């Protein structure tokens, strides 16, 4: 169950800036892992769904916002592997036709429960989780899929990388991908997480809870490129995403991977990396959200 056939590609990026700074940059194309269960969502869901099956659960319940990659991927994975999925969605004013993400999740059979933003704040409350678990007899997967089972899956990305590297980067939303990468690094390597939401301290706490103390020094969260918060953007970011696609034919989303790559290139320009180093950027997928983003803001980003 939940096995894929081949490693996702590791693509070398050719760029005058990289030549000027004497750096090597590769993108780990996790966006190509599956058409619907994309990128880090495949990695995070893998062992959660295996555990659900081992426990004899037929229902998985999870949480997310209106455009959540995790909700979209969980709905698709549940349909494919024989579970009934329930998604607790932040925003009582929404419905299954509010945007392409929710429509697709609903089409894939996910039961959507819309709750108020104040109620959604209880998504990590043991009492609230216990109540839902008992009501639905469900296997509960946290928001973003980030738990210790997710760490196990994300860590497998490193097994597919056959070159030595100095830095590996990823976007950070709930912290599971960064924690999974950091947990498999050698002492000379470092994982850099680019925050997609504002609020320094919160993400450090989330990642710290998932990561063993001996690996804390092998990760860093960079907060300079959130563009005002989750799902916020400005023309500079959109222009960068469009130019990157035109140059490399690799689509980036404006919520996660676009911010990571914008921040990475900005830090390269500012000489934050030593000459001769090798960097791997993990493309965590999430391109399904571009349709809703374009619809909401009247843009034409490639997906």
Automatic annotation (TrEMBL):
Keyword NAD found: no
Keyword Zinc included in the entry's annotation: no
SUPFAM superfamilies attached to this UniProt entry: Tryptophan synthase beta subunit-like PLP-dependent enzymes
Keywords: Pyridoxal phosphate
Annotated Pfam families: PALP
Family per similarity comment: Belongs to the ACC deaminase/D-cysteine desulfhydrase family.
Tryptophan synthase beta chain-like PALP domain boundaries: 7-285
Protein name per its UniProtKB record: Pyridoxal-phosphate dependent enzyme
Domain of life: Bacteria
Cofactor(s) needed by this chain: pyridoxal 5'-phosphate
InterPro entries according to UniProt: ACCD_DCysDesulf (IPR027278), TrpB-like_PALP (IPR001926), TrpB-like_PALP_sf (IPR036052)
């Amino acid at each position: 169950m939940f096995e894929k056939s081949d490693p996702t590609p590791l693509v070398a990026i050719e760029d005058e800036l990289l030549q000027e700074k004497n750096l090597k940059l590769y993108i780990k194309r996790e966006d190509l892992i599956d058409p619907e269960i994309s990128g880090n969502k495949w990695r995070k869901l893998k062992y959660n769904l295996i555990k659900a099956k081992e426990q004899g659960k037929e229902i998985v319940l999870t949480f997310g916002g209106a455009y959540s990659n995790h909700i979209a991927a969980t709905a698709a994975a549940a349909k494919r592997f024989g579970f009934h999925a329930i998604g607790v969605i932040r925003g009582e004013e929404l419905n299954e036709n509010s945007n392409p993400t929710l429509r697709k999740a609903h089409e894939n059979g996910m039961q959507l429960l819309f709750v108020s933003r104040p109620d959604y704040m209880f998504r990590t409350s043991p009492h609230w989780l216990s109540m839902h678990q008992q009501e639905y007899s469900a296997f509960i997967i946290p928001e973003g899929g980030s738990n210790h089972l997710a760490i196990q899956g994300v860590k497998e990305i490193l097994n597919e990388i056959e070159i030595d590297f100095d830095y590996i980067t990823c976007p950070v939303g709930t912290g599971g991908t960064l924690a999974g990468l950091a947990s498999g690094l050698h002492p000379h390597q470092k994982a850099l997480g680019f925050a997609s939401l504002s609020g320094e301290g919160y993400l450090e706490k989330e990642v710290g809870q998932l990561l063993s103390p001996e690996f804390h020094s092998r990760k860093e969260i960079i907060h300079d490129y959130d563009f005002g918060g989750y799902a916020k953007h400005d023309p500079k970011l959109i222009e960068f995403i469009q130019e990157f696609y035109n140059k490399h034919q690799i689509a980036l989303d404006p919520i996660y991977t676009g911010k990571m790559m914008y921040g990475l290139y900005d830090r390269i320009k500012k000489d934050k990396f030593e000459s001769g180093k090798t960097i791997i950027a993990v493309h965590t997928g999430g391109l399904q959200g571009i349709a809703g983003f374009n619809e909401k803001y009247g843009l034409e980003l490639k997906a």
